[in-house]
Amino acid sequence: MNGSLLIWVVLALTIFWCVGLYNRLMRMRARGLDALGSVEKYLRKYAIMVDAHLSEPGVVRAEWDGSDAVNEIWGDWEPLLKQLHSLGVALNELHAAPFDVPMLMRMTGVFEELLNAWDFLCDQPSDLAGPVVPEVLKFQWGVNTAKVQSARGGFNQIMHKYNEAIAQFPARIVVGVMRFSPAGQF
Questions:
Q1: DSSP 73-120
Q2: Has residue 102 been placed in a domain?
C-alpha cells in the first residue's frame, strides 16, 4: 500500500510540475508576443512618417506599386520605399510564425537594409529646393529608431529568458512533448 501511495504522490507532483512549467512558458511566450507587437508598431511608423512627408504639398507624389521597376518620379526615395515595402511584407509574414528563428533573422536583415537605405537617402546632396530629407523627418526617424531599438532589446531579453527556461533540466525533457521550441531573436 505504501508503494502505490508513493507512486501516486510522485505522479501528482509530476503532473503539477508539468502544468506549472507549461503555464510559465506560455506566459513567457505571451510576453514575447506583446514585446514583438511593440516592435512591429514602431516599425510600421516608418512607413507612416515617410508617407506623411511625401503627401505634403510641394513634394512630388505618385503611387508606387511595389514593383522592382525603376520609377523616375520617386528619384532618391525609391530605395527607401522599396525597403519599406519589404519591411511590410516581412512583418506580415512574421505573423504566421512569430518566434521562428529564420523568420526573425530575415526581419533583422530587412531592418538593417532599411536603415542603410535611410542613411543613403540622408547622404544625398542638397539641391536648389534644399536637402532631400527635411530635418524634422530626420528627427522623427531618429526618435522612432531609438524606440525600435529599445523594443527590440526588450523582446530579445524575453526570448533569451524563454530559451534558457526550455533548456533547463528537467524542463528540457518534457518541452518537446509540449511542442515548445527555441525562439529566435530580432
A1: TTGGGHHHHHHHHHHHHHHHHHTTSTT-HHHHHHHHHHHHHHHHHHHH
A2: yes
